[in-house]
Amino acid sequence: MDGAKQPVFDEMHEADGSVRPAYAEYCEWLDQQDGSWLRRKSFEAESLFRRSGITFNVYGEGDAEERLIPFDMIPRIISGGEWRKVTRGIEQRVRAINAFIHDLYHRQEIIRSGRLPERLFRNNMAWLPQMVGFTPPGGVYTHVVGVDLVRTGPDEFLVLEDNARTPSGVSYMLENRETMMAMFPELFTKIPIQPVSNYPRRLAKSLAACAPECAGENPTVAVLTPGIYNSAYFEHAFLADQMGAELVEGSDLRVVDGRVQMRTTKGYRPIDVLYRRVDDDFLDPLTFNPDSMLGVPGIFDVYRAGKVTIANAPGTGVADDKAIYSFMPDIVQFYTGEAPLLPNVETWRCADPDSLKYVLENLEELVVKEVHGSGGYGMLIGPTASKKEIAAFREKLRARPANYIAQPTLSLSTCPTLTRAGLAPRHVDLRPYVLVSPEGVDISPGGLTRVALKKGSLVVNSSQGGGTKDSWVLQD
């Protein structure tokens, strides 16, 4: 399973060096450009991002200075036919996840059937007993989902993980496109690229469709942010502005007459849909963490009474658990009656003694992740780890095996990236953004491509030094 032995799929070039059809028109244009001009354009893009204030914080590093996520202006291009296959698999998976979460908080049929061990959610901090027996307005738990995909071949897209709690990064998808259109407008008249700029409008429409019955014809939507010191505050403010929604903090809200209401210059005004970017534990100090200063006292009782929609629903994080991820093929089959259209990456659950034995014996070749981990933290990439790091991780595995899963080191596909030495292949993944409402499933064409900027690196997370690219889906 050693990724180093697998061929790497180059998304721009065929094995014989010829250009793949999806990149044909772009490469024709690129071949006519001067290398020094491209580098000047790259600096121009960086200044555009700085002026826009697109930064993020890395927690736990000194004074947590704000950083700019590196942007690579060579786009990642996917044909329309390839994208249609991917979206069918994403829609199937997202529908199954929503049905799965509903089942966990109601009859738990998948547990009764023996397809999923009860311990996986009984010991899961993301599973909230306060949600048992309650169905959110419209029956939607996962209003916004990010499905992380990796590509290993021409028709080989795999799901790396699901983000059903509060997927981030969509502002970078939108700003990447706006930057590319500003710098290379001729490309967007020459090449038929599906638009993404209407995402905020589609998000606002999708959230409004999930409003409770008391909302009336024009629901009020607000974005709940932890505040300016949160690493993703730029995105919260950006989305609120682009949607025409209110941007609020917990201190701006209170429960008045059985509704969640927002303080305005004319008194308090009801909010119908709250797109929250605050973790479950901090939503309501009366129900969850009593020390929270970020949430709204009493909001959960209003929610249970059906007087406000919280997106995503509290308790959806149970679907992000990487141990549950390993059961997703069974989950998709159970709730849709169909085989998964998008396969998982092969996964070993370290809670299983045989799997643990295999993982311990092959740590040098595997990627090991915490079941609740995110952002590239708390993981081991065996082929690039030192003997000391592997030995330390081996002890962690033996001490808490149920806290980890392991996967093969995949040969992620590469896309050309502009480096100081010119174009060079770098590994990429893809996070499409999915909107779910009673009206259906809406998938952004492309999503956010993250790129590992270091030669040979497989780590694409911005917190670990990765960058982003504009993702083009063609209209063919």
Commentary on this structure:
InterPro entries: ATP-dep_Glu-Cys_Ligase-2 (IPR051680), CP_ATPgrasp_2 (IPR025841), UCP005522 (IPR016450). It comes from Croceibacterium soli. This is Circularly permuted type 2 ATP-grasp protein. Residues 59-64 have low confidence and may be disordered. Helices cover 29% and strands 23% of the residues. It has a 5-stranded mixed sheet with strand order 3-22-21-18-17. Strands 5-4-19-20 form a 4-stranded antiparallel sheet. The protein has a 4-stranded parallel sheet with strand order 7-6-11-12. It is α+β, with helices and mostly antiparallel strands. Helix 2 (35-52) packs across helix 6 (170-183) and helix 3 packs across helix 12 (328-336). The protein has 14 helices and 22 strands. A hairpin with a 2-residue loop joins strand 8 (253-256) and strand 9. It has helices spanning 24-30, 35-52, 80-104, 109-112, 119-122, 170-183, 185-190, 199-208, 233-243, 299-304, 322-325, 328-336, 353-361, 387-399, and strands at residues 55-57, 66-68, 71-78, 144-153, 156-163, 221-224, 246-248, 253-256, 259-264, 267-270, 273-276, 309-311, 348-349, 366-370, 380-381, 404-408, 414-419, 422-431, 433-437, 440-443, 448-451, 467-473. The chain folds into 2 domains: 21-212 and 308-340 and 411-473, no CATH class; 348-408, Dna Ligase, domain 1 (2-Layer Sandwich), CATH 3.30.1490.270.
Question: What tags apply to this protein structure?
Answer:
2 domains; five-stranded mixed sheet; 476 residues; four-stranded antiparallel sheet; Dna Ligase, domain 1; alpha+beta
